[in-house]
Amino acid sequence: DSMEDDSKLAMVRGYWNVGQLADAYKQSTGMLIKDIADELGIHRAALQRYTQFYKAFSNGYPEKYSGRVVYWAYICCVLPVHDKKARDFYLKEACRLNPDDDLMIFNQTS
User: Fold this and answer.
1) pTM to 2 decimals?
2) Within 13 Å and on the Cβ side, how many CA atoms surround 80?
3) Would residue 70 be called left, alpha or beta, if left means φ above 0 and alpha means ψ between -120 and 50 degrees?
């Protein structure tokens, strides 16, 4: 389980790093994210999501709450939430719940 958690943490960390790089490249070149994605051969929606993730958590993001990993699925669910306190609340709740119940909170809020 720890090895699986480590791989999930590394994946999310990679997405954040890609978002940071894409945002910096956009700032320095003036290119749109969709054009950067096309240039790199990356799916546009994925690069836009990574950039959105970086911007929402530009000072870093929580890797764990209550000893449980903050999964990429949880992060994707809270990206549309602009209020930082609300985003943190939903991430904490998702980590607090049982694995089978994790996404139920998001289904109720959408």
Assistant:
1) 0.84
2) 5
3) beta
Q: Where are the alpha helices (DSSP H) in 1-110?
A: 2-29, 33-40, 44-56, 72-78, 84-96, 104-109
Confidence band of 48 (pLDDT split at 50, 70, 90) = very high
In 43-79, which positions are buried (b, 16+ CB within 10 angstroms) versus exposed (e)? eeeebbbbbbbbebbeeebeeebeebbbbeebbebbe
User: Mean pLDDT of all residues in the chain?
Assistant: 88
DSSP 70: -
Q: Among all chains, which residue has been given the structure tokens 């000072």?
A: 59
Q: Which residues contact 38 (CB under 8 A, 6 or more apart)?
A: 44
- Contacts of residue 101, defined as CB under 8 A and 6 or more positions apart, other chains included, come to none
Reported as a single tens digit per residue, the pLDDT across 60-87 is 999 998 888 999 999 999 999 999 999 9
Residue whose C-alpha is closest to residue 84's, from 106, 105, 62: 62
Residue 104 clears pLDDT 80, i.e. is over it = no
